[in-house]
Design brief:
Layout (H helix, E strand, L loop, with lengths): L1 H17 L2 H23 L2 H17 L9 H19 L22 H18 L4 H12 L4 H8 L3 H26 L11 H11 L1
């Protein structure tokens, strides 16, 4: 993780000091999908989210000589959040469309169709449960659990305290565990446990992604 941060910092330096287009293209590749999935949580529309991400990244390039950035990851997520909120405010009268199973967790396993079908079902159930969370809980959950950000980074992005981030994440985990436990127990009866917290969430993530 530290090595990756150092690499990103070097890319940013190449962009700001050397007008390095290849470095910018690499930054684009590193962050585009993550920012897109984060943006969709706000605007609920993939095409709109794509425009916002492109605008944020284009601004990064256009303002590369003027903007001092200490942490590019945090900077980009804050920029996307702010532009998303502006978009919602500007077009609040428009109908928002929820994109079911947007593809962020799409995994293909042609060698085991049965397992692939079960995995898709689990992903759908998990995404469905995540969508029931209050907006702030959902955003914090995605930043911490899906994007791997630290509490401090998420707090800075959302302009709240790290303590609030921690509290909201615990609430999200408890609600997801409550929703998913009956489903997981029906699929994995031998894995039932009354004492282990967040069993369903941990089972889903370990089964799907590892």
């Amino acid at each position: 993780m530290q090595k990756n941060k150092e690499h990103i910092a070097r890319l940013l330096e190449r962009i700001c000091r050397g007008d390095d287009e290849k470095a910018f293209e690499e930054i684009f590749q590193i962050f585009y999908e993550r920012l897109l999935n984060f943006c969709i949580v706000y605007v609920k529309d993939k095409a709109c989210a794509e425009e916002i991400i492109s605008s944020v990244l284009l601004k990064l390039w256009m303002k590369r000589k003027e903007t001092e950035i200490r942490n590019l990851e945090t900077y980009l997520f804050i920029a996307v959040k702010n532009m998303s909120l502006n978009q919602i405010k500007q077009y609040s009268n428009l109908r928002l469309v929820y994109l079911e199973d947007a593809g962020v967790h799409e995994i293909i396993n042609p060698h085991d169709p049965g397992k692939e079908l079960e995995k898709r079902e689990l992903i759908f159930k998990m995404n469905e449960a995540i969508e029931t969370l209050p907006l702030q809980c959902k955003i914090i959950f995605k930043l911490i659990k899906e994007e791997g950000l630290k509490y401090k980074q998420a707090a800075e992005i959302l302009d709240i305290s790290p303590r609030t981030v921690e509290t909201q994440l615990v609430r999200a985990m408890k609600k997801l565990d409550h929703i998913l436990t009956p489903y997981i127990d029906s699929k994995q009866p031998s894995a039932k446990s009354k004492s282990k917290p967040f069993k369903s969430f941990n089972f889903l993530f370990s089964w799907i992604f590892f």
